Amino acid sequence: MRIIKKIGFFRAKKILKRKIKILINYYFYKYFYKWNFFGSKIEIGKNIRFDNWNTYIEDNVKIEDNVILGGKGEIFLGENTSLNPNCFIVSQKKVKIGKNCMIAPNVYITDEIHNHDRIDIPIKFQGYKYKEVIIEDNVWVGRGTTILAGIKIGRDSIVGAGAVVTRNIEPFSIVGGVPAKLISKRKEGN
């Protein structure tokens, strides 16, 4: 009590919060490295939410501020991949992001979709379908893109900003729009 009186209640509260945060981070990293969920040289920003304990991160991955990795399924982040601020990845089955991928800010990736087949039951009560999402190596996903359940994005593709990906994308494609459509193909030397 003497310490609190001496430095003030709010300052003591701030110091206590900081020490608790340091302890949480220490144990978080200690156990993740012990279980080999994380690779080496990983950069993690502020305010990251790991609501998903089935997350596997390879070497040299960069996760920026305010990223949320949620759900109960598996999330795989390949080598040299970067998740920029405010990305939200929800996995109830499996979301796999390959090597050397760039995921721009505000991207939403999910492997779940509401069932909506029956008209006699409200959509809210029909449950979900889960279909895995695969983003292959060297893919650039533009700012504000939404990638829906069951999508496979082929290697070396580019998804334009603000696109809503509702169909599979072939390798070496450039797509954009709502819904995402083929704009052109990438060629060697371009």
UniProtKB/TrEMBL annotation:
Gene3D superfamilies: Hexapeptide repeat proteins (2.160.10.10). GO terms for molecular function: transferase activity. Coiled coil: none annotated. InterPro entries: Hexapep, Hexapep_transf_CS, Hexapeptide_acetyltransf, Trimer_LpxA-like_sf. Keywords: Repeat, Transferase. This is Acyltransferase.
